[in-house]
């Protein structure tokens, strides 16, 4: 077999064919990592770290409002100054709570809306990468096809 030029040519072409396909597949895996996985991980880290800070602030203000509400409710009716001070603290905390509620809701809506488009953008880019991969594989197969047809013809003649 080593002396048969047809067999040697077949093995060399086959080796080149599989080597090209494997190189394309490795490139696709690398592109998927750099175009999809890494950017989405970065997006999640940055977006949700900001989001978590907003959530912590919102939860703290919620707790402060509950504390102010309890102090106002438990203020002695015999001490009007204490009631007035508790009422002022409650109203100020409630005002901050309302603002923080709106801000937190806005952050949630922005993250939700943006997330859709960020994910779609990354998947579209990945799909283009896959299209390129399959196009390159099809071209490699097309280049190999005439040789394979000739080889099949020679095999059929040899077997008859």
From TrEMBL:
GO CC annotation: cytoplasm
Metal-binding is among the record's keywords: yes
Organism: Sphaeroforma arctica JP610
Protein's recorded name: BAR domain-containing protein
Pfam families per UniProt: BAR_3
Coiled-coil ranges (or none): none
PANTHER family named in the record: ADP-RIBOSYLATION FACTOR GTPASE-ACTIVATING PROTEIN EFFECTOR PROTEIN 1 (PTHR23180:SF160), CENTAURIN/ARF (PTHR23180)
Keyword set, alphabetical order: Metal-binding, Zinc
GO molecular function, one term: metal ion binding
Record keyword Repeat present: no
BAR domain location: 14-153
